[in-house]
Amino acid sequence: MGRFLLIAACLFLTACGDKSPPRNLEDACAIARERPKYMRAMERSERRWGVPVPVQMAVIHQESKFVGNARTPHRFVLGVIPMGRQSSAYGYAQAIDGTWDMYRNGTANRGARRDDIFDATDFMGWYMAESRKKLGIPLSDARSQYLAYHEGHAGYARRSYRSKAWLMAVANRVEDRAQLYYAQLITCRR
């Protein structure tokens, strides 16, 4: 009976999938070697929506550090009483409920899950393609795409990010990481 339970537990964990991050998030080639499925997902999104793989990787790194079931922290009242999470953001792309629903309706991908790398990268490609269409942001502009991703299309159009020095610094880091990942991927992909 003990052996049966051990086998059942292993099968259950395998079926749930690995939501943990790759070991070396600083090296795009290491990510590609360790998680070829991630690269297939991002390449598929790039083919469909035109968003370069390094841009997707840099945004995922910033949003979830490649943790498939990432959530925002809990809020607390009086420092001890939990009052829910800071937002409904979840998964690799940290998509919030309303935007995720817009994606699922807009793409007819009703069964999409935020903790599935293929769905998360497809969402990211869709959202950034919408940012290009609505706001004129080039798909390769990781900094501006991230600002629109974080602030939403209306917030970006209002330039709400300008009053957030911390967010501007984060967007600059996303741009730097996209350039780093691009340079690294040249050496290992081709």
Question: What do these coordinates show?
Answer:
By secondary structure, this protein is mainly alpha-helical. Helices cover 63% and strands 5% of the residues. The chain has a two-stranded antiparallel sheet. The protein is globular and about 40 Å long. The protein starts with a helix and ends with a helix. 33% of the residues are buried. Residues 4-16 have low confidence and may be disordered.
SSE map:
Layout: H1 2-16, H2 28-34, H3 36-49, H4 53-64, E1 74-77, E2 81-85, H5 97-107, H6 117-135, H7 142-158, H8 165-189
Antiparallel strand pairs: 1-2
Helix pairs in contact: 2-3, 3-6, 4-8, 6-7, 7-8
Please summarize what this structure is.
With 190 residues, the chain is mainly alpha-helical. Helix content is 63%, strand content 5%.
What distance separates the N and C termini? 50 Å
- Helix share bin: 55-70%
Identify low-pLDDT runs: 4-16
What is the mean pLDDT?
86
The radius of gyration computed from the alpha-carbon positions, rounded to a whole number of angstroms, is: 18 Å
* Percent range for β-strand residues: under 5%
Shape: globular
Largest sheet: 2 strands, antiparallel
Strands in their spatial order, largest beta sheet = 1-2
Descriptive labels:
mainly alpha, 8 helices, two-stranded antiparallel ribbon, 190 residues, 5% strand
